[in-house]
Structure prediction request, 391 residues.
Amino acid sequence: MEEENVPVAAVPAEENGVEEATERLDALQTDADDGKDNGKRKKLPEQNNPPSIPVAELFPSGEFPEGEIQQYKNDNLWRVTSEEKRELERLQKPIYNSVRKYIREILKPGMLMTDLCETLENMVRKLISENGLQAGIAFPTGCSLNWVAAHWTPNTGDKTVLQYDDVMKLDFGTHIDGLIVDCAFTVAFNPMFDPLLEASREATNADVRLCDVGAAIQEVMESYEVEINGKTFQVKSIRNLNGHSIGPYQIHAEKSVPIVKGGEQTKMEEGEFFAIETLGSTGKGYVREDLECSIYMKIFDVGHVPLRLPRAKQLLATINKNFSTLAFCRRYLDWLGETKYLMALKNLCDAGIVQPCPPLCDVKGSYVSQFEHTILLRPTCREVISRGDDY
Prediction:
């Protein structure tokens, strides 16, 4: 295990990194705006900048805009004309565009990772009209850097700073009544990482039958190469990470969606939500647990477990009240006013009540990119709920 507790930048920032990064993100946003479908969609209510109007106020009728609609193919075409199937569609759709667009605008080298996470999380709390376990953040903001693929968020007091040559995976989610939407994208200021980001973005967008998604993702992903500081790497799908089904108050439900060929042939059924995520790496394409843990989650189907320590019982009551089986992090416990809880938290983990979710890392010095969308298998089509005009 590495001695350091947090991931650090692999290469020092360039002196002009801030200006270059700002211009680069402005250009990306301009490209995204130019790519809109020029009024073909229904005009949406305007959000403030920075976003501050709760989604429910923007759409007081409760009719939220659809995500990207993808028709079923081949033997599923009958669904499009089925009156019975159409009548079954009653959907609720959170909005991700405002958050992603604003975060891209403020991201720049030199930003403290803790500030980045808290800015995003505070905005989500406001836009989703946070209300205990009925609505709010679905899991801590992941902002894993470079060879850290997933599950890293800063603990209180962490001084990690975003650098010009970092590759950051920004992973966030919201829920309403436990219905979770999971979304991730990758940010890199240095253009030499563009092919790496493009590989995972295009792999996420692979339009195939769901049962073939693993092979298709791997084929697209590994068709890319990236040159980093004069050395060429083939992009590899991380073979021991998967997409996953999403259940009420359960971010990782029972079914997995492989991102390499030959994986489990998941049967996806009508009405189910899935997170389709792709992670491409310049390393071994295999992750292991490493670094200091910051994210935890109460085990979904855990029964009653007797506890001896009063402090552990108290902490469990806090977890049950505020998170239930949704993931949380140490920053959230600090925010709730919990102190001196590490021993109690360890006790809950040792007792099999809470599961630690440590960072997942490829080899040190490699780079990992990720893109992720949540899809819903509707009766007549599939809907990419988290699709926006940026990706």
Observations:
- Residues 17-34 form the longest helix (18 residues).
- Residues 243 and 257 are 4 Å apart (CA to CA).
- The longest strand covers residues 135-145.
- The chain has ten helices and 18 strands.
